[in-house]
Structures are given as C-alpha cells and as structure tokens.
Task: inverse folding
C-alpha cells in the first residue's frame, strides 16, 4: 500500500516537473518571436523634398504607359516676399522631418539630401516603390495668383486613378490625417485634401502617397512664417503626428 502511494506521488512529481519544463520551454520560445515581430513592424517612410535647384524640362509620361507627358521635374515656386526658393524650403523641412521620424523609430529614406540633383518625379516614386514605403511623403509649398489665398492642403489620387486606384483609400487617409494635424499644430487654415490624377509623382506611386502643400509662398504671412525654423518645426510635428494617426 505504502509503495503504491509512494509511486503515485513519484509519478505526480514527474508529471509536474515535465509540465513545468515544457512551460519553461514555451516561455523561452516566446521571447525571440516577440523581437522578430517588433523588427518587422518598423515602418518605412520615404520623404521627397519636392523640386530641385535646376529644372529638368525634358518630358516623361504622367503615369505608367501614359500618352500624356509632363516635365520631369520643375524648380518650384519662389517666396513673393522672402524670395526663398521652394526647393530649398522643402529640403529644410524634409531634413527636420527625417530627424523627427527617426527619433520616433521609423526607418526613413530620403529621395534627396541636397538641392543640386537631377531626379524626375517618376523616378522619385519608383524609389518609394522599391523601398516598399508604408508612406511616401512629398513636401511642397504652394503658390496662387491671389496673395490672399492661404492655408495648408494635401493631395492624393482620385478613386478612379488609372494607375493606382487601389491605393486611393490609404492615400486619402494619410492625406487627411496629415492636413488635419498640420492645421492643428500651426493654426493655418485647413484646406483639406485635393484629389487629382495629374501628378506624375502620385501616378507612378505603388505605395500610399501624399503631397503636403505646407502653405502659400504668395501669401505674405505664410511666406514669412515658412521662412522661420520655429514654423517649419510646427509643420514637421504636424506631419509626424499625422503619420502616426494614419498607422493607428
Ligand atoms: Zn512644389
């Protein structure tokens, strides 16, 4: 009888330690899986500082296989009051955004880090496609015939875009989140999301894309504000928060 009880106890102890051992084993397995998941979750953001110092007036199709052509890349607008060059302002903001997003843990790829480059709009989109960007952010500043026009807006494709309509919903969500967030951070007028299929850099994109028009270089107040680092930082905070909202 005693031996029977003893053997039952022994078996129980054995089963219990086996259970503990297998549990520990599982625990060990869980840790590396978590690390892998965290790494694979790192989002890729491609930033394109719009335009460049010297325009490239040669033509390229406005989308894959398109008959309609547009200039490869233009020089952009000039500040009516400050005389700042749009390509230079775009690069300054792009670099501040790069720093901000890296600090938040994103992987950032810059289309250009200097003004003296020659990269067409379709090529810029192809770089974002190859990088499998989770978001392709194109930084620009606006201009209008009326000096009264002011505010921030973003652009994306329409839901009927011939080349990438499947990305419309994501691009719209990205554009909406960013314009809303910039307006909140800067106090600028929220002009919303403009949907267009005329932009080569959008049409060639096979990833979620937005053009950020930070403000009007033809408006006295915005031209002057855009020339200050303090305002550029507000815009960058707005874009970064908008990107985070997009991924939520
Ligand atoms: Zn521009």
Result:
């Amino acid at each position: 009888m005693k031996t029977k009880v003893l053997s039952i106890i022994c078996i129980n102890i054995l089963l219990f330690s086996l259970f503990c051992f297998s549990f520990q084993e599982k625990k060990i397995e869980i840790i590396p899986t978590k690390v892998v998941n965290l790494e694979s979750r790192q989002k890729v953001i491609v930033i394109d500082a719009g335009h460049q110092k010297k325009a490239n007036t040669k033509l390229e199709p406005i989308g894959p296989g398109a008959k309609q052509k547009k200039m490869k890349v233009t020089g952009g607008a000039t500040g009516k009051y400050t005389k700042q060059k749009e390509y230079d302002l775009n690069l300054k903001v792009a670099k501040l955004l790069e720093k901000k997003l890296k600090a938040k843990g994103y992987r950032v790829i810059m289309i250009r880090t200097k003004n003296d480059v020659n990269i067409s709009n379709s090529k810029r989109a192809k770089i974002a496609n190859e990088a499998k960007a989770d978001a392709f952010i194109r930084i620009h500043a606006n201009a209008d015939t009326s000096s009264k026009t002011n505010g921030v807006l973003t652009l994306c494709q329409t839901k009927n875009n011939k080349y990438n309509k499947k990305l419309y919903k994501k691009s719209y969500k990205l554009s909406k989140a960013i314009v809303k967030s910039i307006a909140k951070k800067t106090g600028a007028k929220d002009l919303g999301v403009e949907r267009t299929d005329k932009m080569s850099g959008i049409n060639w994109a096979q990833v979620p894309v937005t053009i950020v028009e930070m403000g009007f270089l033809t408006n006295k107040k915005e031209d002057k504000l855009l020339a200050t680092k303090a305002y550029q930082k507000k815009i960058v905070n707005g874009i970064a928060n908008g990107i985070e909202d997009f991924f939520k």
Q: What stands out?
A: Helices lie at 2-40, 86-103, 121-130, 168-186, 200-203, 220-226, 229-247.
